[in-house]
């Protein structure tokens, strides 16, 4: 675990290295450049435990995860219950930065069923020594950033090995956050399929990256919702709803 050119450039240039396909010229429009620039600015923001807004973001994540549990402080043994390595979560952000916390919050707010399932390891034949949720989430962020080559600089012109996909052209910033949610669910699915335990987490992450690269290279992908793995997010929603129905002992399920 860890403590593109733009993201279209990094992705498609790797595809060319694998398949020696012809390159296509592609120019970013000014609005597209602006959105991509905002994403890269997010990457350059370290987590700062002294900043009130960063503290507030962490507290928001806690409230969503444990709405009925009062947090004793920004440094507390309670953070380990969420999968941080120690009592001070700020030490876990050194390998990635504030964007990894933003990714976790995006998952929690936009796909709450997936967030709860991943946090509490619901479903599947689980290992005795499971991966820690929060630290795993930071690693998924870092994996995506490296895979998409987002740490590199960019300009308004790219040489692409494939025609750029629609979802990559239109909204880099939003697409990255949604892709993070898909990747986290994909990682958990691989974890279960491989019957993995804690010491095998890095191998699971490598397999997840390869699968995600394959899906992003499919010709009929026009938006992230078209990725086969996107269905994992909705499966999580369905599992949570089914559990809710069962807990209520609801006979007429057509009401939901």
Plain-language structure description:
The protein is mainly alpha-helical. It is built from ten helices and two strands; from the N terminus they run H-E-H-H-H-H-H-E-H-H-H-H. The protein has a two-stranded antiparallel sheet. Helix 4 packs across helix 5, helix 4 (98-110) packs across helix 6 (133-147) and helix 5 crosses helix 10. The longest helix has 22 residues, at 172-193. It is globular. The termini are far apart.
Regions with pLDDT < 50 over 5+ consecutive residues? 2-25, 154-167, 239-256
Work out the helicity level: 40-55%
Question: How many helix segments?
Answer: 10
- Topology as a string of helices (H) and strands (E): HEHHHHHEHHHH
Major β-sheet profile: 2 strands, antiparallel
User: What structural category do the secondary elements indicate?
Assistant: mainly alpha
End-to-end Cα distance, whole Å, is: 40 Å
As a percent range, the share of strand residues is under 5%
Beta-strand segment tally? 2
User: Whole-number radius of gyration?
Assistant: 19 Å
How are the strands of the largest sheet arranged? 1-2
Mean pLDDT: 78
So what's the overall shape? globular
Protein name: ELMO domain-containing protein
